[in-house]
Amino acid sequence: MDTATAARTRPDDVPGNRAGRRSAARCAGLLFAAVSVVVGFRAAGSDGVTPVPQLLAFLPWLLVPTGAGLLLALLARRWTGAVWGVALLGLLAWFIEPYGRTGDPTGPPVAGLRVLTSNVEFGRGTGSLVAAVRRERPDLVFVQECDPACDAALRRGLARTHPHRRAVEGGGSEGSVILSRFPLRAAGGVPGTMGMPGAVADVRGHAVRLQLAHPMPPLPGQVGLWRAELDALRDAAAADRATPTVLAGDFNASQDHAAFRRILDTGLTDAARLAGADRTPTWPARTMPVFGAQIDHVLVSADFSARRAHFLDLARTDHRALVVDLTLHRGA
Length: 332
Known about the structure:
The chain is an alpha+beta fold. It has helices spanning 3-8, 15-44, 52-56, 63-75, 79-96, 126-136, 148-158, 223-239, 258-264, 271-274, and strands at 109-119, 140-144, 164-168, 176-180, 184-187, 198-203, 206-213, 245-250, 269-270, 296-300, 304-312, 321-329.
C-alpha cells in the first residue's frame, strides 16, 4: 500500500477490523436472541419449556448478557442491534419491578407474629436451624426436606417452645413440618411429591390458615409436574379467601414464574415484598451474594402487614432461611 492509499484508508476498512466487528455483531446477536426468548415468555405470561423456567428464576441476572451484547453492538457499530439491546434492557428493568400489592390493611392490629421458613436440604441443616429458632424466637416455623432424623431433632430441641406441630413424614426431601407456639388444628394440606402439610392456628383467638409449600423443582422433564403442584397450591389459596392465611416454604419459583404469580393473584402477597426485600436471593446459598434467586417465600393474605424481613445463612443447607415479622389486622 503506497502512502497516498494508506492516507485515504480509514481504520474501519482494515480487513482485521472488519472481521472483528462482524464477530462482535454475531456474538451480540446470539446474546440478544437467547435473552429475547426468555423475556418473550415472561411478557407472554408463560413459563414455557426447558430451559425457560430454569432461566426465568434468574431473570434479573439476564441484565449481564444483555449489557455485554449492547457493548458488543456498539463496538461493532450495529445500530439496529444497539436498539435491540436497549429494548431488552428496558423490558428487563420493567419486569424486575416487584409484583403485587404494597398497601397495608386498614383494620386495627390484633396480633403480631414472627414466621420462619427453612429448607434444611435433606435434614443436613437441622442443627443450624434449631439454633436459629432458639435465637430468632419465631412463633411459626415451616421446615422443608425434614427427614426422620430431622423430625426427631426438632422434637428434642423445640418441643418445649413449639409444642404444636403438623407434619408429613418422609425420607430425603419428602418430609415437612409446621411448628407452632399457638394451638393448631388439622387441615387438609396439599398433595404433592414432597410433603405439604396444612393447619389452622389459633393466634390469640383468631383463626389463621397455615399451608407449607414445597412443590417439585422445574427439573428437565418434570416442568409439567412442577407447574401442576404450584397450581394445586394456588387452588388451596383460593379455596378460602375469608380466613387470614400464611402460605410459606420453598416454592421452587420466583415472581418471574407465571405459575407463582397465579398464586399471588388469589389475593396473597409476598411478605418480603411488603418489607422491601423482594429480590433478596435465598438459593443457592453457596453462590451468594454473587448469584442467586429468591425462591423461598412467606405469602400472606390482605389481613397482614409485614414490618421486617431478614435472611439467615444456615450451615449445611443450600437455602437461606427467611424470617418475617407480621401483624394481623381485623377487618382487612
